[in-house]
From TrEMBL:
Alphabetized UniProt keyword annotations: Cytoplasm, Protein transport, Transport
Region of interest called Disordered, as start-end residue ranges on this chain: 839-863
Organism: Priapulus caudatus (Priapulid worm)
Subcellular location: Cytoplasm
Gene: LOC106807051
Major localization listed first in the record, in broad terms: cytoplasm
Placement of CHCR repeats on the sequence: 535-699
Keyword Magnesium: no
Protein name as annotated: Transforming growth factor-beta receptor-associated protein 1-like isoform X2
Domain (CNH) ranges: 1-268
Composition skew (Polar residues), residue ranges: 843-857
Keyword check for Transport: yes
């Protein structure tokens, strides 16, 4: 987009027939528009009859290159006088290399065309025009442009590209010279703009391919130029502006009689037959704002992306481009296009508070944020967009919730985390309870006072409690939860007694734990006691030192007291008599209560007694006499038997099991349990007592009982589990019993006796063999001689032996007695020849074992 300056003026130089006229001009702002004030500074009469065809300035050299009368001349810019030291170059047209590859900054590369179908390359310095080389062409050149080592040429009917280094010619495309005016303009590195058929502007690279779509220009083309990202084309009536981004016409300017249109050092000038005008491009920022105002988002963004080449630094351009994306995002937002808006907001790094400010009552009262200046949009709030439509209002709120949730963990939100989290809490309080609870527990920075009011308004008491807990105010959180469970506040499906017990279990503040323990125990004793049984402080279980206080507190809650004692005894395995005795008494009281209840299920009573019996059997830390008296009072015979066993009163225990309960299996089990880990004689005595109980006659003289006892005795004798001293049992068995009744016992006893006798013999033989071997080894070592001469030296000090006493080790090392620190360790190799083994039970060293022959000390034998 451009504006035309209608003031007369000139820029640099103007040719008027045989004159060259120099103008200077000043660029000024007049009535908000760019204008020029021009002044003629000098002129030069060339003295030739033919007009000037081309005029180009070599600013670095302060020289003008002028083509007229079939030649190129060089003039000085200072006085427009010819440079006499520079020879002229024959040419019908010429061009300068706009991307020279020369290393000399004070030279210009020039290409000329001749009537001989040739191109000539020159190097132009301050005072010389030096010919480099020439290139043959297949046809006459009409116009051309040069970039680096490539020249794009319009022949009379064909466009070609030539590589000056290799003279390689690449055909581009043909054109009809009768309908198409050929133009060649360099637009970028190794890229040219060509006028093609049907008024098409074709882009061609040095390799002969087109990397951009063509631009459809006006008919009867008179001149073209390129100023990124626009192509300007002119005919007798108009100047058109096309964008190379989308190939669309962006502007048309009325201009009659146009002759020349060109871009010179970033400025565009257009000349008619008598006047020169400046064409001032509208700044791309203004163009973009105009496109945004027309809601042409795509065009605005495309133009912004391609405006990076306008000389801005990368950081400055990125900042401007982000602002444009934000503006475009708010336009899409206002038009209900949420997916486009969120992408623009993210890529433009929009401040989340700018979006939140469009929603009434979502910004925290403590925020001092003000909207961006200059404004990114003209929206007051979303009510201006939705016009009270509740459906659209809900969609806009959902958009904000999704957008904030998506960017919440990004780095750019760190500065406004409080506003973002406060807005999300308020939105979720109205929309989604599940996400609300997750949010308030995930490092939520929301304004507490602001959110408390909103959460209470919407009845989100559970979320409010979680927010208090996340902020470290567990007391307020527990108060809300208890009020919810007591029915004072609206409840939540997630909050129940189990949830409350879980929270209190994790409490590390002992004051809070005791404060709410009574409340929880009244609700549910089993769950309440978990406050003490599952309590942990920094990963460690609750200190047992607090157990007395807990037991005192739980006296009002018998079920919780029982659970806590079980925790101390079975989980913590505390071997304290008072805990074990207290637990056993509670078990007995429970059994007593069940026995007094008439409608008690038999299974409940059996389970209670089984727990009591297991505890009595497994534990040894309780006071047996107290429990025995209680058990006898309650007539708990099985329990009495266990307690008698703890007192080593096995006869009384077996008497109860055999004669009172007549539970022979329990009696045998009793013997098996109490025999574990005991000596052989103890086991024999225990089973002998049971056999004696079986063999004794029942007190009531009942024959069936006597028969059952005899069968139990026979079964016990023949059982492989029982262990007896055979001689004692034989004295106990009645003489009138047939051998067949105890045949298995007799066979097993005889075999065991024979086996033990034979094992003794084997052990004796092995011991004798070991002793004989030791005696042989000792004799072998003691009888071994060592010859020591006067020339032999000690292996340690390397001095000769002067004393008949020396040490010889099993590995052959011989040393002085005083050179060895230890008789069992070789002083040279450090090898150990004798080790002390610990006693298998006490762990104290009681004997030594030699790995090799013991150290010997033979006398010196004279040689």
């Amino acid at each position: 987009m451009i504006s035309q300056n209608h003031q007369r003026g000139g820029r640099n130089y103007k040719s008027n027939n045989r004159y060259i006229i120099e103008y200077s001009f000043d660029e000024k702002m007049l009535n908000g528009r760019t204008g020029y004030e021009s002044h003629q500074t000098k002129h030069r009469f060339l003295g030739q009859k033919k007009p000037v065809n081309q005029l180009k300035a070599a600013s670095a050299l302060y020289r003008l290159l002028v083509q007229f009368d079939g030649s190129v001349f060089m003039l000085s810019m200072f006085d427009l006088e010819p440079v006499t030291t520079a020879s002229k170059a024959k040419a019908t047209s010429f061009c300068l290399n706009e991307n020279p590859d020369s290393n000399n900054p004070f030279s210009v590369q020039m290409c000329t065309a001749s009537k001989k179908k040739q191109l000539h390359l020159f190097t132009v310095t301050e005072d010389r025009i030096m010919h480099d080389h020439e290139i043959q062409l297949p046809d006459l050149p009409v116009t051309m442009a040069m970039d680096g080592s490539h020249i794009c040429i319009a022949l009379t009917s064909q466009y070609i590209v030539i590589n000056c280094d290799t003279n390689r010619l690449q055909d581009l495309f043909p054109y009809d010279s009768e309908t198409t005016m050929p133009f060649v303009k360099r637009v970028a590195k190794e890229e040219f703009l060509l006028s093609g058929p049907s008024a098409l502007g074709m882009f061609a690279s040095a390799s002969g391919i087109s990397q951009r779509p063509p631009v459809h220009m006006i008919d009867n083309l008179a001149s073209i130029c390129y100023s990124h990202p626009y192509v300007l084309a002119m005919n007798e009536q108009f100047i058109t502006v096309h964008s190379v981004i989308d190939q669309q016409q962006k502007q048309i300017i009325s201009f009659n009689g146009g002759r020349v249109l060109g871009e010179f050092d970033g400025r565009i000038f257009v000349a008619s037959a008598r006047e020169v005008y400046g064409v001032v491009p509208v700044p791309w920022e203004i163009q973009i704002q105009s496109l945004l105002a027309d809601k042409r988002i795509t065009e605005a963004l495309d133009l912004a992306r391609n405006s990076y080449k306008t000389g801005l630094t990368k950081d400055r351009f990125n900042k401007i481009y982000e602002t444009i994306q934000q503006q475009a995002g708010f336009i899409e937002f206002s038009q209900h296009r949420f997916s486009e808006a969120v992408e623009l907001f993210k890529s433009g790094l929009v401040d989340a508070r700018e979006v939140i400010s469009l929603y009434p009552l979502l910004m925290p009262r403590s925020s001092n944020y003000t909207r961006a200046v200059p404004a990114l949009h003209d929206l007051a709030d979303i009510r201006q967009i939705t016009h009270g439509n509740q459906q659209q209002m809900s969609e806009y709120k959902q958009f904000l919730a999704d957008f904030l949730e998506d960017i919440r963990e990004t780095r750019r939100v760190l500065a406004c985390r409080e506003e973002v989290d406060t807005a999300l809490v308020k939105l979720y309080a109205e929309m989604d309870t599940d996400k609300l609870c997750k949010l308030v527990q995930n490092n939520c920075k929301a304004d507490l006072s602001d959110c408390t009011e909103v959460l209470q308004q919407h009845g989100r008491y559970h979320a409010l409690a979680l927010l208090h807990r996340a902020r470290g105010d567990l007391n307020s959180a527990l108060a809300l939860w208890t009020r919810m469970l007591d029915g004072e506040l609206e409840g939540d499906p997630l909050v129940n007694i189990k949830y409350m017990a879980k929270i209190l279990t994790s409490v590390t503040d002992q004051h809070l734990m005791w404060k709410y323990a009574d409340w929880l125990l009244k609700k549910d004793e089993k769950l309440g006691v978990t406050m003490f049984t599952c309590q942990s402080v920094d990963g460690a279980e609750l200190e047992p030192a607090q157990a007395p206080a807990v037991l005192e507190f739980l006296q009002r809650y018998p079920e919780a007291l029982l659970k806590y004692l079980e925790y101390l005894v079975f989980s913590l395995r505390l071997e304290k008599e008072k805990y074990h005795t207290h637990l056993a008494l509670l078990y007995m009281n429970n059994v007593q209560n069940l026995m007094k209840t008439n409608n008690t299920e038999q299974g409940l009573l059996e389970d209670a007694r089984r727990r009591l019996q297991t505890m009595l059997q497994d534990s040894s830390a309780y006071r047996v006499h107290i429990l025995l008296g209680k058990a006898q009072e309650l007539e708990l015979s099985a329990e009495c038997a266990i307690l008698h066993g703890k007192l080593e009163e096995h006869e009384q225990a077996l008497e109860i099991l055999v004669h009172r309960l007549r539970d022979y299996a329990a009696a045998e089990q009793y013997c098996s349990v109490n025999a574990r880990g005991r000596s052989r004689s103890y086991r024999h005595k225990l089973f002998y007592n049971l056999l004696t109980a079986y063999m004794s006659q029942p007190a009531d003289g009942n024959t069936e009982t006597a028969k059952a006892l005899m069968e139990a005795a026979i079964s016990l004798l023949n059982s492989s589990k029982a262990e007896f001293d055979g001689a004692e049992v034989l004295r106990l068995i009645p003489e009138d019993w047939p051998i067949s009744l105890v045949r298995q016992f007799l066979v097993r006893t005889v075999r065991r006796s024979q086996h033990e006798c034979r094992m003794k013999l084997v052990e004796q033989a092995l011991a004798q063999g070991a002793r004989a071997g030791a005696e042989v080894a000792t004799a072998s070592v003691m009888n071994r001689s060592e010859i020591v001469t006067e020339d032999r030296c000690c292996a340690v000090c390397h001095k000769p032996f002067r004393d008949p006493q020396f040490l010889r080790y099993p590995n052959g090392i011989v040393s002085h007695i005083h050179c060895s620190n230890h008789r069992h360790i070789c002083p040279v190799t450090g090898k150990l020849f004798k080790v002390i083994l610990p006693h298998p039970r006490s762990g104290s060293p009681t004997k030594t074992t030699s790995f090799q022959s013991s150290v010997t000390k033979p006398q010196i034998r004279e040689s």
